[in-house]
């Protein structure tokens, strides 16, 4: 069972701010603390149930699938298209295509 000190510590770690007075739940801060303690207790009880399971023969899972990356080998290909567009440009300077300034 969670103590009040444990609950306050967890609330601080989770940045949960209990309302100082009133709030939307009955009982204000005390009601919020009680509800949170009950919810966290239920979660911890569920983990206790899971600890009973025998997982020695179960293979670890990472990502939920056994798929592997299918990558192809990098192959260097000579590009035969290099320089074909040069003839369409009106001007060239030092091997570069000269275009009008944009700004």
How many helix segments? 2
**Which H/E pattern describes the elements?**
HHEE
> Quick one: overall form?
elongated
- Side by side, the strands of the main sheet go 1-2
- List low-confidence stretches: none
Mean pLDDT: 81
Question: How many strands in all?
Answer: 2
Amino- and carboxy-terminal Cα gap: 70 Å
How much is the radius of gyration in Å? 33 Å
* Overall SS class: mainly alpha
Binned, the helix content reads: 25-40%
- Beta-strand residue fraction: under 5%
Major sheet attributes = 2 strands, antiparallel
Question: What does it look like?
Answer:
The chain is mainly alpha-helical and 103 residues long. The chain has a domain at 4-51. Helix content is 33%, strand content 4%. The chain is built from two helices and two strands; from the N terminus they run H-H-E-E. It has helices spanning 4-13, 28-51, and strands at residues 92-93, 96-97. The chain has a two-stranded antiparallel sheet with strand order 1-2. The longest helix is centred in the middle third of the chain and has 24 residues, at 28-51.
Key structural traits:
103 residues; mainly alpha; two-stranded antiparallel sheet
